[in-house]
C-alpha cells in the first residue's frame, strides 16, 4: 500500500513527495463540490503541477449532502465533480451518503438518496470514473452494508466504497476492536476502491476523529484486515495539520511494516 494525504491546489507537491507521500486526495478550495469553477486550462495546470511534483491525484473531493437543500442542485454538483475528475487526472470522486436529520424518515430519505445516485451514475460511466461513498454512520447510506445494498440496487460497477472504520465504529465495540475492524472491512470487501487513515477517540460516549495515532484505533488490525482482503492501493492520511502530518505518516508506516 502507498500513502496519500489531503491537499489543495495551493499545496507544494515537492514538499509532500519529500515527506514520502505518493498521492493526494485533492480538494479544490474546499472539501466539498460547491466550488468547482476553474477553467479547463486551470484544471490542466493543477494536473500538471502534481504530476511534475511526482504525486498522483488519487481522488477528487466531491462531498455533498444529498439531503440538504435543492436535490437537483446537489445532483448537478456531483455530476460536475464527476466531469471535472478526468480533467485533473483523478479516477475517483468521493461524496457522502446523505446526512441524517432529527425526525427524518430514514427509509424515505435512503430511497431519495438512492434515486439521486441513480441520476448521477451515467455521468460517472460517461467519464470513466468511480463515485465512492465514504462510509459514515451519520448518513442514511453510510454503513458498509447500506452502501453495498445501494450498489446492488443500482446494478453499477461505478459506485464504490471509501473504507474508513472510525466513521462507523461504536463505543460498544471498544472491548473488541480488532474483531470489529475485521467485520467492518469484511462487510465491504470487493467494493473498496480507496482507504482512509485516521483515528477514533471515544470520550464519555462521544466519538472524536483525530489523526492516526491519536486515538484508540488498532492500526495493526486495520492493516492486517486490508491486506487479508487483497487491498493494495492508497491509504489517505487525513485529519492532519502541518504539526501532526509527519507523526501520523510514521504511525501508519509503522503499522504497514509489521
Describe, in plain words, how this protein is organized in 3D.
The strands form two sheets. The chain has an eight-stranded parallel β-barrel with strand order 1-2-3-4-5-6-7-10, surrounded by five helices. The chain is built from eight helices and ten strands. α6 links the parallel β6 (159-163) and β7. The chain has one domain: Divalent-metal-dependent TIM barrel enzymes (TIM Barrel), CATH 3.20.20.150. The chain has helices at 13-18, 40-52, 71-84, 106-126, 144-154, 177-188, 219-228, 245-257, and strands spanning 2-8, 23-27, 56-61, 92-95, 130-134, 159-163, 192-197, 201-203, 206-208, 234-237. By secondary structure, it is an alpha/beta fold.
Topology at a glance:
Blueprint lengths: L1 E7 L4 H6 L4 E5 L12 H13 L3 E6 L9 H14 L7 E4 L10 H21 L3 E5 L9 H11 L4 E5 L13 H12 L3 E6 L3 E3 L2 E3 L10 H10 L5 E4 L7 H13 L1
Parallel strand pairs: 1-2, 1-10, 2-3, 3-4, 4-5, 5-6, 6-7, 7-10
Antiparallel strand pairs: 8-9
Helix pairs in contact: 3-4, 5-6, 6-7, 7-8
Features:
TIM Barrel, 8-stranded parallel beta barrel, 39% helix, alpha/beta, 258 residues, two-stranded antiparallel sheet
Helical run tally: 8
At the fold tier of CATH, the topology name is TIM Barrel
CATH architecture: Alpha-Beta Barrel
Specify Rg, calculated over alpha carbons: 18 Å
Strand tally is 10
- The strand line-up of the biggest sheet is 1-2-3-4-5-6-7-10
CATH superfamily: Divalent-metal-dependent TIM barrel enzymes
Uncertain segments: none
Whole-number mean pLDDT: 95
- Terminal Cα separation, in Å? 13 Å
Shape: globular
- Number of individual domains: 1
Query: Share of helix among residues?
Result: 25-40%
Strand content: 15-25%
User: What is the CATH top level name?
Assistant: Alpha Beta
Structural class by secondary-structure content: alpha/beta
Biggest pleated-sheet summary: 8 strands, parallel, barrel
Task: Name the helix and strand elements from N-terminus to C-terminus, one letter apiece.
Answer: EHEHEHEHEHEHEEEHEH
